[in-house]
Write the structure tokens for this entry.
Amino acid sequence: MTIKLRNVALVAHVDHGKTTLVDTLLRSTGAFAAHQAIVDRVMDSDDQERERGITILAKAARINWGDTLINLVDTPGHADFGGEVERALALVDGIVLLVDAAEGPLPQTRYVLSKALGLGLPVILVINKVDRGDARPDEVLEEVEQLFLDLASSDDQLGFPVISAVAREGRAMMGIGMPAADADLSCLLDTILSTVPAPTGDPTAPLTALVTNLDASDYLGRLAIGRVHSGVMTKGQTVALWGKDTDGNPLKRRIAQLSVFDGIGRTEVDSISAGDLFVLAGISEVEVGDTISGTDVNAPLARLEVDEPVIRMAFGVNTSPYAGRDGKFVTSRHLKDRLAKEILGNVSIKITDTDSPDVTSVAGRGELQLAVLIENMRREGFELQVGRPEVITKEINGKKHEPLESGTCDVPDEHVGTITQALAPRKGRVTDLRPGDPGRTIVSFEAPSRGLIGFRSMLMSSTRGTALLHQTHAGWTAWVGELPHRTGGAMIADRVGSTTGYALDNLQLRGELFVDPGVEVYEGMIIGESARGEEMVVNCVRAKEKTNIRTHSHDDGPKLAAPVVHTLETAIEWIGDDELVEVTPKNIRIRKRGLALEDRRRAAKKG
């Protein structure tokens, strides 16, 4: 009996309700077994996904609708994780595009839609959150239609079904409007069946399958995830593995175990036919982009192409005086093994060796992607130190080019000037201004990626957290020359010890502090930012000299302002080229590369 099947991806910008919609679909179609506890954001299994409210890793689940099985692939909505989006699209035959009824399409929406239309995938538009007080679904539909006009490669792609939804409550209706109180998601599921074609592929042909993701099992080792393009994949079958470096001579390997997605879990099966998604064990050498085929196949499928990284950072062994206090994994071998493991399943991250055996260059799609990797390593017990992000350049027509980003910023009206003034020295330009919600303006802009390092934290500080910023890679631009960094110099501890309120009270008059009293510091550690541009080497551990004379005016202790507490992201954005962020499971510290003053002077002379 032929199984009726659909493969569909759900794509959207951050916080437009995609993961919530997946949750509701899983609930409404009975994808949870009776004994399973139902939690919110079930597809966001990664700790940071739940904390940050974003989807980082592409995942799949399977639901039943009538007599049809639907594989739902949940995809990231942040531009830094675009590599996951491209891999997800390789699994499916159509997409459900979610757009917020108030915010409308944003830069990442354009990015994902361009990828989907480039692959010829049909699109179902879901305008979500139509119950918002500031919803403007008619205008949002017009904006999406304009996107299609800009991106479609044929007239056939200009027609698409439109659904209005309140995903949080599991209600939807065809067209523009407010779903009835007793509505459900039937119209969306029916539209998936009628719009997304059944998978093509001849089950009688020789086996070909493309690997789009990797996983790992404590018992089975490396797992390959992908889609069968033709033929039938069978447990125990001997197959050919076409890797990146096989040069026409594939490896012969045996499939030890075979599974399909089932609800939010997986179920072992004996065989999988053309069009379905698979999870297999037994091929330890498999990598993302590889083809798995029958042994009688003479050539692999087209290798999965993913946009190249645009930013890189140096990851090194922690060399601070406090190294080894907090972490379990502190050596160069630990660091290199962990990074090698990361690239096995993350095709959008690249690692390369450097001149130093203790330092590895890690490249990715953006600061957030690399910050998520660092935070994961920190939680796993690693200690490391990382340098300032730098963009990856390339030669075009003999000239140096750097990555360009487009973005939108939704800000209160009084902060529009803040955006325009901040973009000017960063060599950015405003491309559009339009009204947003009452009292707010949406500013569209373009700027070199290099100029936007630190832009997010500056913006959030200037607007007191009221700004909404979205960015995406927009191509390449000619090198724009030197760009300004921070205006203040570093306050640098001159000795080891614990900070005192007395010392900090004197120092806070000269800039912003990063530490409270009682914090352990070491020589070369940065404890604040001076108000002036030059660096300051300071004694922050000095205690007040005791005397026998008591004065009421001074015995109450110093009145210290709250310190600036850097997160991992803000610390990475703040540092300069001669500074590092020390990352341990318990601490985030900022330091100079050369800890001793004399070492820094020698390095400065060398230039």
Notes: The longest helix spans residues 137-151. The longest strand covers residues 399-412. The domain at 208-293 is CATH 2.40.30.10 (Elongation Factor Tu (Ef-tu); domain 3).
